[in-house]
Amino acid sequence: MYVRMYDDLKRGQGDNLTIGILLCSETDEDIARYSVLHDNDRLFMSKYLTYLPTKEQLKAEIERQKEIFSMQHPVLQENGE
User: Fold this and answer.
1) What is the residue extent of each domain of the chain?
2) Going by C-beta distance under 8 Å and a sequence separation of 6 or more, which residues neighbour residue 5?
3) Tell me: the pLDDT tens digits for 2-14?
4) Fewer CB in 10 Å around end: N or C, the chain?
C-alpha cells in the first residue's frame, strides 16, 4: 500500500506520520533504503532509528524472502528465470 494511501485510509488521528521502508535488490548486492514523504520537512530519520530494523536485518530479510520465493516457485529456478 502506498504511504499516502495508508495515511488517508488507515492512520489514526493521533498517530505519527507514516514512513515507508523500501526493500531493493540491485545486481548481487541487496540494499535497503528508508523512504519518507518528500514534502514533509518536519519528519527526520533520526527520530525513528531506535524503532527501525538495521540495514543488516533488512538485508537478511530480503535473503530470507528470496529463499522462500525460490522454494515456492521451483520452476522459475530450473528455467533460470
Assistant:
1) 3-78
2) none
3) 777 888 888 888 8
4) C
Q: What is this structure's pTM?
A: 0.34
Identity of the amino acid at 63: E
| Torsions phi, psi for 46 (to 5 deg) | -60, -25
**Three-state SS sequence of 17-81:** CCCEEEEEEECCEEEEEEECCCCCCCCCHHHCCCCCCCHHHHHHHHHHHHHHHHHHCHHHHHCCC
C-alpha cell, 6? 495508508
> What's the CA gap between 17 and 52, in Å, rounded?
14
